[in-house]
Automatic annotation (TrEMBL):
Top-level taxonomic group: Eukaryota
Pfam families from the UniProt entry: Epimerase (PF01370)
Stored Gene3D superfamilies: NAD(P)-binding Rossmann-like Domain
Domain NAD-dependent epimerase/dehydratase, first and last residues per copy: 5-230
Molecular functions per Gene Ontology: aldehyde dehydrogenase (NAD+) activity
Protein name per Swiss-Prot or TrEMBL: NAD-dependent epimerase/dehydratase domain-containing protein
One CC-aspect GO term: cytoplasm
Organism: Lophiotrema nucula
Amino acid sequence: MAKNILITGAAGFIGGSVLASFVTRESGPIKDANLFAAVRSAEQVQSLSKLGVKTLQLDLSDGKAVKDAVVSNEIDIVVHTASAIDTNIVSALIDGLGLRREATGKATYFIHTSITAVFSAEGGWPYGEVKDTDPIFEKEKELGDANPARKVTLLVTEASKARGVTSFILPVPQVYGRGTGEWRKLSVAIPAHVRTSIQHKSVHKFDVEGKPHAVHISDLAEFYALLVERVLLDEDIPSGEEGYYFTTVHGTQWWAIMQKLAEGLHKRGLVAEPKVEIWPSDDVAAEWLGFPRAHIRAIGVSSGDIVTVKAYEKLGWQPKWDEKMFMESLDDEVQDCLDLDTVGSSLFDAFKTSK
């Protein structure tokens, strides 16, 4: 019997690209699955419905509605890309999957999208290098839930175990490239800097260079597909407390990225000089970029030493993009922002009230 897969955030950059990857699979178990897409607006429903998937207009802040949607649509697998920091959404989705498992006696699965910033010193990670084969859950338990993204990953593992749901956690690094979804096609960080630089006629960087890991959106979408395929084939792969899967492919150098953006914007006459200034303060950076002040350092300067293992060894992931290709594509990133930056991102909405 075909499995039912729900993708939350299906109108977003990651979720939309994951959905597009699933829809276009020409063979394999995903092709035979029933795809459901959760979005927020009627306009998004209309846009995504043409893909031949069942599109649900769903307010994810309404826990009862979320749980009922999972149960009534007989969802077996949730691919959650809508928020890394909202405990209420996660709880409702897992509760729904738990009820589904109880009703059928069959396995249900929750795939949670987190962020790699929690594994940086700025994100409260004191252990240095981390591999996804390490006992990450135990270390996160020791650290507690001061970081909101870590609070959610702990909840995912513990609540899933309590409800008999099989869980996976995917900490995602900086994502770049043009998305393939029907709605939002841009990431968050680079478009925010491009948008702000144009508005203020100058490009800025933080006083400390961040060196975050990164992945191209096409490689990331393929990773999700490979993981879901293993689930659909009922393969024995690490899950639960051992279910962390890093999706980092290569490092980046943020100052070099900003310099490339400055050159690309200057040649288009959009900034005054082809050089990069230091932010006058974190307050200014947070205000201009539209990011939460409480987390601006983690967003802007985090690095971390993150090693991807299981994606390669357990799933056979073969990313196509590397750092050289990324740096060579930055002028395309600028042009994509100019062409496509029409939809605001809600990634940090829940953060904006945090202190």
